[in-house]
Write a structure and sequence with these properties.
Elements (H helix, E strand, L loop, with lengths): L1 H15 L12 E9 L1 H4 L11 H11 L2 E7 L7 H7 L3 H9 L2 E5 L2 H7 L6 H22 L4 E5 L13 H21 L3 E3 L2 H5 L2 H4 L10 H16 L5
Parallel strand pairs: 1-2, 1-3, 3-4, 4-5
Length: 236
C-alpha cells in the first residue's frame, strides 16, 4: 500500500508538472527499506545517546542515488536474537517486511555479552545465535522471498581491553561472525563484514574506551560497507 501511494503521488506530479521537469534525469525507483537489529542499527552513540545509526546513513546514500526510500527502523537497543524472533512476528513489522526490497540486520552480540560474565555459558549462547538467526532469515524468506537481505558481521567492541585478553576476544568474535556468515549464506542472503574497517581506526570509530558503540564516523563507515554490497545488486 505504501508503494502504491508513493507511485500515485509521482503520477499526479507527472500530470501537473511540465514535461521538461522530468527531462533532467531518469525517474527514481520507489523502494521500501526495513532495518532490524540492536543498538548499532538504532544509532546509540559512545555517550549512550540515540543518534543516527548505519541504516540512517545507508538511507541517505540511497536517496542520493536513484531511489525514493520508504524507510522503517524496528531495531531496539539491547536486542538479542530471541527478541528479534518476537519482533518479526509483530503485525506492523511483518507487513513492512512483506513489502521491503531491502532489509538489513545486525543481531547476536547481546546474546554473547550477557554470557561474558560466565564463560561456561558462551557455547550455548553461540548455539542460540545460530539457531535463532537461521529462524529469522528463514521467516523473512518465507514472507518475502524477493527481498535483498544484508546481515552484518561484528567488529571488536573491546579494542582497549588488556593485550593478554585480546586473543580470547578475537576467537569469540571470529566464532560469532562465522556463525552469522554461515546462517546468512545458507539462507541465500548477503554477509557484510565490519571487523576490518573498524579496526583501521579504533580511536575515531570507537572513541570511548568504556563504551562499545560507534561514533558518527564509525556508523558512516559501516553504512559504506553495506553500500558496497547493496550497490552490486541495485539493478538486479
Amino acid at each position: 500500500m505504501k508503494k502504491l501511494a508513493a507511485l500515485l503521488v509521482v503520477l499526479m506530479l507527472s500530470v501537473s508538472l511540465p514535461s521538461d521537469v522530468f527531462a533532467k534525469g531518469p525517474a527514481k525507483k520507489v523502494v521500501d527499506y526495513v532495518a532490524l537489529g540492536d543498538s548499532l542499527a538504532r544509532g546509540v552513540t559512545p555517550d549512550n545517546e540515540i543518534g543516527a545509526g548505519y541504516p540512517d546513513y545507508l538511507t541517505e546514500r540511497l536517496r542520493q542515488s536513484q531511489y525514493m526510500v520508504d524507510y522503517d527502523n524496528f531495531s531496539v537497543p539491547g536486542a538479542t536474537t530471541d527478541h528479534l524472533l518476537g519482533v518479526i512476528k509483530q503485525d506492523v513489522v511483518l507487513n513492512n517486511i512483506q513489502e521491503a526490497e531491502f532489509i538489513t540486520i545486525d543481531i547476536g552480540a547481546n546474546d554473547l555479552l550477557s554470557a561474558l560474565p560466565n564463560p561456561a555459558k558462551l557455547p550455548a549462547a553461540l548455539k542460540t545465535v545460530s539457531t535463532n538467526l537461521n529462524a529469522v532469515l528463514a521467516a523473512i524468506d518465507q514472507h518475502n522471498p524477493n527481498a535483498k537481505v544484508y546481515v552484518m558481521g561484528y567488529y571488536n567492541p573491546f579494542p582497549y581491553a588488556p593485550a593478554e585478553q585480546q586473543p580470547q576476544l578475537e576467537e569469540l568474535l571470529n566464532n560469532l561472525n562465522g556463525l552469522i556468515q554461515l546462517a546468512t549464506l545458507i539462507n541465500g542472503d548477503t554477509y557484510v563484514p565490519t571487523k576490518d574497517i573498524i579496526a583501521k581506526n579504533y580511536q575515531t570509530y570507537l572513541p570511548n574506551p568504556s563504551n562499545i558503540h560507534l561514533s558518527e564516523e564509525g556508523y558512516q563507515a559501516v553504512a559504506k560497507e553495506f553500500w558496497k554490497k547493496l550497490d552490486k545488486s541495485k539493478n538486479d
